[in-house]
Design a protein that fits this description.
The protein is mainly alpha-helical and 414 residues long. The chain has one domain. It contains 21 helices and no strands. It starts with 6 loop residues before the first helix and ends with a helix.
Length: 414
């Protein structure tokens, strides 16, 4: 049993609770409004039921995510300052206009695999200063899609970490490999639609080659940690990132390392919106699924559905919740509570990846999605033009195709 499920977990949950009030003060207005709505709903349900225990359970579910988000900020800052990222930026800069969309798509997929939405900050400066808004918009949309596809499999994204943490009976390695296969299929289809030819693709891949050594090192470290300790993907990231960061900082010397650590700390202290929403979402979901009769009432509505419509419903619910501004952790937690009453409805591996795909696509169409917000800022494109865009159709098509692939997998493994 992981150590954070015992007394250490209790201490971490208390520390997370203490972090919430200052996080509310520093958060954006939209985050504070959503948090207030969730807090009001939690208070109302808790008062009606008369059982505050689910609040504590929700804090426990969220506390490892708190550590996960903090160490991600550390890795993002250090990797962004590394030689590999600078070399990638230099190699991708000469792409001609016809290759830009494919370059930003594949670049965001590769860089985003361990920098998540920090990939926008690497790619956006590659745009020429005189590029018109339409060109910036297409590049930003491609970058958002690339990051979304990377989120199908990378353990550095909250979706993969959260789902594998909650569904600990499903091997994290299997989820990551399945997600990578789905991501490559989605990426290939997107490139085909954009008309990116083999020659352009080779130039793009050449630009990303400097990422291969650091990516291999990161993968080896986390596979070793999971194999040696038996912990899941999220726990491996929490344990492994400080070790990797120390190894990357050591050759830089104190003069370069100290400012990076200060920048990371500043990002943790002031970039608290997602942590606040994840904590609130976990508490809300724990309270909601703890309502007497909630899951047993909802579950019969799905009984008897074949795997494809069932998995399609999972992804569709995630997308709808995202479009309404709800954090994917809310819909994922509620769906997990419902499927706990449907143990044989669909293969657990297929369900896990359906939740991750739904999570990854939902943030591309959410009015409060961090990935899209950062893209808007980095590429200087009005936020609504990124939300109401071709990415909406892409999310629907990829979601439906993903449900089909996972339904085929369900037929093979059961």
């Amino acid at each position: 049993m992981p150590p954070w499920t015992g007394p250490l977990g209790d201490v971490a949950a208390v520390l997370l609770a203490l972090f919430i009030p200052p996080a509310v003060v520093r958060a954006r207005r939209t985050t504070r409004v959503l948090f207030a709505l969730l807090a009001a709903a939690v208070a109302a349900v808790t008062w009606a039921v008369g059982n505050p225990w689910p609040i504590w359970q929700g804090l426990h579910n969220a506390m490892l995510l708190g550590a996960f988000l903090c160490v991600l900020q550390l890795l993002r800052t250090i990797a962004h300052a590394g030689q590999a990222i600078r070399e990638v930026r230099t190699r991708l800069a000469p792409l001609d206009p016809r290759q830009v969309e494919g370059g930003f798509l594949v670049g965001a997929f590769g860089i985003g695999s361990f920098l998540s939405f920090g990939a926008h900050a690497v790619l956006a400066p590659l745009m020429q200063a005189d590029v018109h808004e339409r060109g910036r918009r297409e590049a930003a949309l491609a970058s958002v899609r690339g990051i979304s596809f990377a989120a199908f499999w990378s353990p550095f994204f909250v979706g993969v970490a959260y789902v594998t943490h909650q569904m600990h009976d499903v091997p994290a390695g299997s989820v990551i490999l399945l997600g990578l296969a789905c991501a490559v299929l989605a990426l290939a289809a997107d490139l085909a639609v954009a008309g990116t030819g083999p020659r352009s693709l080779m130039r793009i891949f050449h630009g990303l080659l400097p990422l291969v050594p650091i990516s291999a090192l990161i993968a080896a470290v986390f596979v070793a940690i999971m194999w040696l300790t038996g912990i899941g993907a999220m726990g491996a990231v929490v344990v492994g990132v400080p070790l990797l960061s120390a190894a990357l900082l050591a050759p830089m010397g104190r003069e370069k390392a100290e400012p990076l650590l200060k920048t990371s700390l500043g990002g943790i202290v002031y970039g608290s919106d997602e942590l606040l929403l994840v904590a609130a979402a976990n508490i809300f979901a724990a309270v909601l699924t703890g309502l007497p009769g909630f899951a047993p009432t909802v579950a019969p509505l799905l009984v008897g559905l074949p795997p494809f419509p069932l998995l399609l419903a999972v992804i569709a619910i995630m997308l709808l919740a995202g479009a309404l501004g709800l954090h994917p952790a809310i819909s994922a937690s509620v769906l997990l509570g419902v499927f706990a009453n449907l143990p044989d409805a669909v293969a657990r591996l297929s369900l896990a990846e359906a939740l991750i795909i739904g999570w990854s696509l939902a943030v591309t169409i959410s009015p409060v999605g961090v990935t899209v917000m950062v893209a808007s800022q980095m590429f200087h494109v009005p936020y609504p033009k990124l939300v109401f865009s071709r990415n909406l159709a892409t999310a629907l098509l990829v979601g439906a195709a993903g449900a089909g692939v996972l339904a085929l997998l369900d037929a093979l493994v059961r």
